[in-house]
Amino acid sequence: MTRLDGLLRVAEDRFLHGHLLSRWITDYVDLEESLAVGSISQEELAHAATLMEFAGLDDEGRDAFIFERPVQAWQPTALVVHRLDDWPATVLRGYLLASVGEVGSVLLSHARRPELQSAGQVIAAEQRLHVTHWERWVSMLGQDQRTGDELRARAAKVLPLATDVFGSPAFDQANGEAAHAAWVDSVSGPLTAVGVSVDALGRIPAPRGELAGSDLADILGEIQSLRVGAGDGVRGLYR
Question: What are 142-156's pLDDT values in tens digits?
Fold first, then answer.
């Protein structure tokens, strides 16, 4: 695995999360929250585009990377290949991934290339805002007697999906293990405060494996439906 491969794996995570969040722009929790989620979704897509650019893809290459590769070529975290259609699960996933984004971007800010350092700092700052947003929801749902049990029940299903966020091939072993430990430490306080144990996240990252039984094929089919071929009348307009 090269560093560029790792950037592309993280870009997959960000793009898929941005797409999955987009349904909440119109499937209202409330209007203000829908606007906030729309902003987070757009920033996730923008972060994915930035990572793909630094991995060496031009505009056409990025388009092909997202819209033309078969499902077997993707290696995202298990956390973004399940639809998790309810709000508590969406909140938990958003919180975990925002925390991953903040911690992982620190690695970019330590890169030798100045442009990567700058991008890492910007992405980390924006992910910090996402963390604050989702952490507030974790606290509200977890402390409310009407929703606390549901949040904890969802956590039992969502947290095990996150064990591979810092796993290979997205991160090498040394960086992955250090980042995983820092990430678990960062989320343990807020989650423990609402009765959610972080034990399911594990002590070291799991490698990214086969995603059989996931919703990835269906999700990618939805994403790629606008890019069905050069003669469809859509691609030409886009380019």
Answer: 999 999 999 999 999
Domain of 89 in residue numbering reads as 3-238
Segment 6-53, tens digit of pLDDT = 999 999 999 999 999 998 888 767 888 889 999 999 999 999 999 999
All residues at 6 or more sequence positions from 72 whose CB lies less than 8 Å from its CB, including other chains:
none
Distances (CA, A) of 216 to 34, 136, 158, 227: 24, 29, 16, 17
CATH number at residue 127: 1.20.1260.10
Which residue do the tokens 């092909």 mark? 64
Phi, psi of 212 (to 5 degrees): -60, 140
The total number of structural domains that make up the chain: 1
CA dist 134 → 117, 127, 128, 177 (Å)? 26, 10, 10, 24
Q: DSSP string of 103-154? A: HHHHHHHTSSSHHHHHHHHHHHHHHHHHHHHHHHHHHHHHHSTTTHHHHHHH
Question: Which residue type occupies 216?
Answer: L
Four-residue CA torsion sign, 60, 62, 66, 71: positive
Amino acid at 140: M
183: exposed, middle or buried (C-beta count within 10 Å: 0-12, 13-18, 19+)?
Answer: buried
Q: What angle do CA 17, 215, 12 make, to 5 degrees?
A: 35
Cα angle 206-93-57, degrees, rounded to a multiple of 5: 70
- Residue 5, phi then psi, degrees to nearest 5: -60, -40
The span from the CA of 64 to the CA of 62, in Å, is 5
